[in-house]
Amino acid sequence: MAGNLAPIARLDVASRAAIEILRKENSSYASLDDSVLFALFASRNAIKEAGWKDDANFGVNVGSSRGATGLFEKYHEEFLRSNQSSTLSSPTTTLGNISSWIVQDLGATGPDISHSITCSTALHSILNGIAWLQSGLSDKFLVGGSEAPLTPFTIAQMKALKIYAAADTVAYPCQAMNWDKSRNSMFLGEGAGIACLEKGRTKNAQALITGIGYATETLTHNISISTDADCFQKSMKMALGNTDVKEVDAIVLHAPGTVKGDQAEFNAIKQVFGKHIPAMTTNKWKIGHTFGASGILSLELAMLMMKHQEFIPVPFVKNIAIPKKLNKIIVNAVGFGGNAVSILVELPS
């Protein structure tokens, strides 16, 4: 849909109604930013599905690229008008709000961490969770990302970078993975994604993380990565480890819809996979770019495709060879600063 003459992707009506019910559930929740409420709602559903509801012994690492964007703009506008700050302006806009409120809501007894690593935030949460599990300090970790960036100033910032989709584009404003596009086409969406990580193999596991990779490259520009995305090449190779590239069935690209960003990631994939490029897809043409939550929502797409053994193509990208099986999928994310993360997931055996 279009808002302020810009394409955006809001939560659906049912999800928005559920968030408003949650907001009214507790008087303390009325003053929280949407980014926090999105994370609370998704976390409740995640632990229920994982069977953690009666177990409080888990850690939490849920991050956000921007954090309490809506409240920041609200309180700053109030300050400009009155030269005073509201009492709750500081505690409700700290980034630690997200994981702290999840811990409060769920009664978790493990460590809670919030962070921002721009658009790779959610996948970095997975890296952190795995590190805690591998250290032996925790057996369970709740990880993910949440973002509510559909505010005037945030959209204006993206427009100022000349990367936002045109408002006059009716069908598919985001042309992610359209290698022939001549203009940038990123647009913003909102949402949250949460995953429950456990050490070892469990009977109800929906997927196994069998490889993780990360890299940061030296930037020549504040918002762009190198032509061949050196960071993605390194992160994908690290995630693959000893896995033969022929075994990877698909890749869920970060692909924000920008001309240079999409092409750089594709160049990196060609460098790593050579003649054996897996089927490629992304979800940003449908749900927009959700900044810090985007990586976990891409992971969700990968898991759903494996679960239902159905590859979801990008509708305007032609000549994609549909894989006969979906057992191993790589998920990519990168953000301002060149911080790339790649996660290799597999179907439980």
From TrEMBL:
SMART domains: PKS_KS. Pfam families: ketoacyl-synt (PF00109), Ketoacyl-synt_C (PF02801). Residues 1-347 form the Ketosynthase family 3 (KS3) domain. Keywords: Transferase. Belongs to the thiolase-like superfamily. Beta-ketoacyl-ACP synthases family. This is Beta-ketoacyl synthase N-terminal-like domain-containing protein. It comes from Aquimarina litoralis. The lineage of its organism: Bacteria, Pseudomonadati, Bacteroidota, Flavobacteriia, Flavobacteriales.
